Amino acid sequence: MTDLRAKVERVVREVIADLAASGALRPGPAPDTAAPRTPLVAANWKMHKSAAETRAFVAKLRLAEGVETVLCPPAVLLPVLAAALPPGSPVRLGAQNVHFEAQGAFTGEHSCAMLLDAGATYVVVGHSERRALFGETDHDVARKAAAALRAGLRPIVCVGERLAERESGATFRVLRAQLTAALTGLGAPAPDPAALVVAYEPVWAIGTGRNATAAQAQEALAFLRDRLAELFGHAWTRGMRLLYGGSATAKNAPELAAQPDVDGFLVGGASLDPEAFSAILAAAAARRPEVTR
Ligand code: 13P
């Protein structure tokens, strides 16, 4: 298995190097790097909430100035959420999964166009629960991310190591392999940096109450930003958002949000409670732009 992974990583690296050499991965227009990144906090409700609970959540949600708020309910609740938000609300909607094909015999799946129709702007791609419980591969993740961007949906690409991988010192190898594989299908020009979000979600921190420390999150996200810079250039990479996810709470969010490469959060459990989620939004809003790298 380790041999196979090493081989796959090598092949992926060679493909990326070839693409880079051919100019296929050349960056798009340089973003305004003087502009600070707008923090982004996304709620991943997973398989929780009824329509009534969705409306109750919206009634209690307190937005924070200067933070992009994204709510990712189960897909059937997207229209409910869209209708519950006040007209002109800055809250964006997201889906938790998407199929990479435009249409066809894929029972139970949704296409990018369907999610856009239902009001989504973002879509979570490659969540570790999709990978572990539903057999999603790096190749699937790459196809989903590419299909989303082509369709005008913004992918939130999730990567993260399992506990055994961290303990055996494989964290950065895993992150590099997952990130590189997920982005192989993007082609040229590079996407708008605001449209591609990467979330570091260590599997051992998801739903466990054991969050990564601020230092662990920063180290992993800095590593991911540096790898992205290798693919798309530093100017492009400075304009994109990297999120931390895994037992993020109102309590630990301020310290995590103070890290230079933590541009926001992908929140599971704590996003179900409007008070706790609003407090995380406030923590992201308190981030000082000058700390960003
Ligand atoms: P928790 O915040 O419940 O640990 O979940 C994190 C997550 O999986 C978000 O996508």
Give a structural overview.
This protein is α/β, with parallel strands linked by helices and 293 residues long. The protein has a single domain (36-291), classed as TIM Barrel. The chain has 12 helices and 8 strands. The protein has helices spanning 2-22, 51-60, 78-84, 112-117, 128-134, 138-151, 163-167, 171-183, 214-232, 234-238, 253-257, 274-285; strands at 40-44, 68-72, 92-95, 120-125, 154-159, 197-200, 241-244, 264-267. It has an 8-stranded parallel beta sheet. α6 (138-151) packs across α8 (171-183) and α8 runs parallel beside α9. It is globular and about 50 Å long. Mean pLDDT is 91; it is low at 26-34.
